């Protein structure tokens, strides 16, 4: 990748995307956001059937780097920081392959918003999960009050965003924020094992199932329905006839054949 703080590697059919800024607890700045988007494009263009998301060092991600946004003018903050964060995290959430987040350390603020974009979250004991933004006089800005409400429920997000509650891995498991808890140091290997189990299943079926779940949950439902419909129609005899007629400059002879 162009930014060494976002690493992408391929192990068989598993893509591994690593946040590599351990000295700053993998906190993001604008360049890292852009690199994350580029990594998503690269992963989707690869042969990967599942993607593992993790951090280096002792944190998954501390979210947005305060020094990167604190001095921004309000309009620049909203456009360059918040809206870009939304676009990049939506790109991550919308990857064709399932995404497994390995929470190897704390996932706070934007870090939790990134983790929430994954399909499966595996956390190791000893970590903390929460949305501390209001304690800084700020609000969650990368879908913390949107995607997190859809996936975890408004009641739980209120506890984190309004009450400032920070949960342990075990508490997060009981509350449905994470899907599995493992011993310290095992999050990455457990996530890779889960991703390998996904990769062993039918790639077309898992991609389609992911789209169907997104449509049912209301997450970008319009795009999911259009993608499913387009894939269905793309294999029909009618489409082939339509393209042949266009190329041959004649009227199509549609027969309603799939």
- Major β-sheet strand ordering: 1-2-3-5-7-10
How helix-rich are the residues, as a percent range?
40-55%
Structural class: alpha/beta
Q: Which CATH top level class of the largest domain fits?
A: Alpha Beta
The termini sit apart by: 42 Å
Principal-axis shape: globular
Task: Indicate how many domains the architecture comprises.
Answer: 2
Commentary on this structure:
The protein is an alpha/beta fold and 258 residues long. The chain has two domains: 6-199, Alpha-Beta Complex (2-enoyl-CoA Hydratase, Chain A, domain 1); 203-248. It is built from eleven helices and ten strands. Strands 1-2-3-5-7-10 form a six-stranded mixed beta sheet, sandwiched between helices. Strands 4-6-8-9 form a four-stranded mixed beta sheet. Strand 2 (14-19), helix 1 and strand 3 form a beta-alpha-beta unit. Helix 1 runs parallel beside helix 3. The longest helix has 20 residues, at 74-93.
Question: Main attributes?
Answer:
258 residues; alpha/beta; 2-enoyl-CoA Hydratase, Chain A, domain 1; six-stranded mixed sheet; four-stranded mixed sheet; 11 helices
Secondary-structure blueprint:
Elements (H helix, E strand, L loop, with lengths): L5 E6 L2 E6 L10 H16 L4 E6 L3 E3 L4 H4 L4 H20 L5 E5 L2 E3 L1 H7 L3 E5 L3 E3 L16 H6 L1 H8 L4 E3 H7 L4 E3 L4 H13 L3 H15 L3 H14 L2 H12 L10
Parallel strand pairs: 2-3, 3-5, 4-6, 5-7, 6-8, 7-10
Antiparallel strand pairs: 1-2, 8-9
Structure, briefly:
With 258 residues, this protein is α/β, with parallel strands linked by helices.
């Amino acid at each position: 990748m162009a930014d060494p703080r976002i690493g992408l590697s391929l192990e068989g059919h598993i893509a591994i995307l690593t946040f590599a800024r351990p000295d700053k607890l993998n906190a993001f700045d604008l360049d890292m956001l852009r690199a994350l988007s580029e990594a998503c494009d690269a992963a989707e263009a690869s042969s990967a059937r599942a993607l593992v998301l993790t951090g280096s060092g002792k944190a998954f991600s501390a979210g947005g780097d305060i020094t990167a946004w604190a001095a921004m003018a309000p309009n620049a903050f909203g456009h360059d920081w918040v809206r870009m964060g939304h676009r990049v995290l939506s790109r991550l959430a919308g990857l064709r392959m399932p995404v497994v987040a390995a929470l190897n350390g704390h996932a706070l603020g934007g870090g939790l918003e990134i983790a929430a974009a994954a399909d499966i979250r595996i956390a190791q004991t000893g970590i903390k999960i929460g949305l501390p933004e209001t304690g800084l006089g700020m609000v969650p800005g990368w879908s913390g009050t949107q995607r997190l409400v859809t996936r975890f429920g408004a009641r739980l997000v209120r506890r984190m965003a309004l009450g400032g509650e920070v949960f342990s891995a075990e508490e997060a498991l009981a509350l449905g924020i994470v899907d599995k808890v493992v011993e310290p140091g095992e999050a990455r290997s457990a996530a890779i094992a889960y991703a390998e189990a996904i990769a062993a299943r039918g790639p077309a079926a898992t991609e389609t199932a992911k789209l169907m779940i997104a449509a049912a949950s209301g997450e970008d439902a319009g795009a999911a329905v259009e993608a499913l419909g387009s894939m269905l129609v793309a294999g029909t005899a009618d489409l082939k006839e339509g393209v042949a007629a266009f190329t041959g400059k004649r009227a199509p002879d549609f027969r309603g054949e799939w």
